[in-house]
Q: What sequence folds into this?
């Protein structure tokens, strides 16, 4: 079964600080990887996704993530955070049916990011 | 506009009553999912359906039931057997391809 770990549950940063949120997954086969963001009172929104190719993926709002297969990791980064980045961030993994997965999206427990002015 | 509609947005029920949460999509997606979101626990999969008339249990299916009689609809019933039903429930769909999941705006269920 696939699982996802996010080790930082709460992160507080000042504006302009750099951000890195950790995400590790456990699944031996090929996976698709996602980061979602949930701003206060809003829908889950897709930040970025990795399916194949360049392991450094760029998403919306200046976010990027790097897939390191050997470490089963997909950490989220942003060089300079803004107050408006305050939100909850979720890493998720999907094992596609073609690789024997159930096409289920499994989420981590989330990281609550607070950016202070 | 295509998307997922969950209704109602807020739902209150008395303990011991079954309640059904609606999820409708007009995206022509084959797969649909129900998640439960609790603070500090992320999103946990309740049930999912890859195709009409078929569904599978997710990680926390106990106390819940679903049906998938139509492609567009995947209602979730929270039964009286669910011990902690108060939560935020999210429905999602996926076309079965790489391009990912669309989420509804959720239903917040409070059982008193």
A:
């Amino acid at each position: 079964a696939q699982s996802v770990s996010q080790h930082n549950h709460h992160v507080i940063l000042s504006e302009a600080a750099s951000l890195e949120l950790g995400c590790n997954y456990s699944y031996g086969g090929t996976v698709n990887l996602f980061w979602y963001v949930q701003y206060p009172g809003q829908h889950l929104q897709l930040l970025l996704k990795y399916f194949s190719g360049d392991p450094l993926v760029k998403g919306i709002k200046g976010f990027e993530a790097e897939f390191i297969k050997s470490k089963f990791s997909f950490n989220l980064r942003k060089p300079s955070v803004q107050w408006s980045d305050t939100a909850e961030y979720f890493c998720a993994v999907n094992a596609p049916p073609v690789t024997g997965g159930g096409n289920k999206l499994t989420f981590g427990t989330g990281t609550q990011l607070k950016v202070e002015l | 506009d295509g998307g997922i509609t969950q209704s109602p947005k807020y739902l209150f029920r008395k303990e011991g009553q079954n309640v059904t949460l609606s999820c409708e999509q007009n995206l022509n997606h084959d797969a649909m999912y129900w998640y439960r979101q609790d603070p500090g626990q992320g999103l946990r999969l309740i049930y999912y359906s890859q195709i009409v008339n078929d569904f599978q249990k997710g990680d926390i299916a106990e106390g819940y039931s679903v049906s998938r009689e139509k492609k567009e609809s995947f209602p979730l019933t929270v039964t009286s057997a669910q011990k902690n039903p108060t939560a935020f429930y999210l429905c999602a769909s996926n076309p079965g391809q790489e391009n990912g999941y669309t989420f509804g705006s959720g239903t917040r269920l409070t059982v008193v």
Observations:
- The longest strand of chain A covers residues 87-94.
- The interface with chain B takes residues 6, 9, 32, 34, 43-44, 46, 49, 51, 90, 92, 96-97, 102-110 of chain A (CB under 8 Å).
